[in-house]
Each structure stands twice: as C-alpha cells, then as structure tokens.
Amino acid sequence: MEANLDLGIITGKTDIGRGAVQRLKMNGEPQVQARKLWTQLNLFP
After folding, report:
1. What is the pLDDT of residue 31?
2. pTM
3. DSSP category for residue 36
4. What is the mean pLDDT, run by run of 10 residues, along the chain of 45 residues?
5. 33 CB contacts (<8 Å, ≥6 apart)?
C-alpha cells in the first residue's frame, strides 16, 4: 500500500492491497480528513 499525502488517500499496489483498502474502508471521509491533518502536523507517515 502507499499513501497519497496530497489527497490523503491510501491505495493498494496489489489486488489484495486494493481489496483491503476497500474492505476496511481506509479512505472514508473521516479517515481522509484525519490523514490530511496528521500530514500537516508532521504526524503521518
């Protein structure tokens, strides 16, 4: 998996990774907003 820090989303590199991102809802709005904030605060990645 890899994170797009500008958009705040996580993408899977493989079929299994993409399935995990989708199944675990890793790019839901609350998660994306939190990831963007964490990036601005240098807390992520």
Report:
1. 96
2. 0.81
3. H
4. 95 97 97 95 91
5. 8
Integer Cα distance of 43 and 23 in angstroms: 25
Residue with tokens 């299994």: 16
Q: Which two tokens stand for residue 8?
A: 């705040």
Each domain of the chain, given as residue ranges in start order, spans 2-40
**Measured on CA atoms in the order 33, 36, 40, 42, is the torsion positive or negative?**
positive
17: helix, strand or coil: helix
Exposed e or buried b for every residue in 4-37, given b needs 16+ CB within 10 A?
A: eeeebbbeeeeeeeeeebeeeebbeeeebeebbe
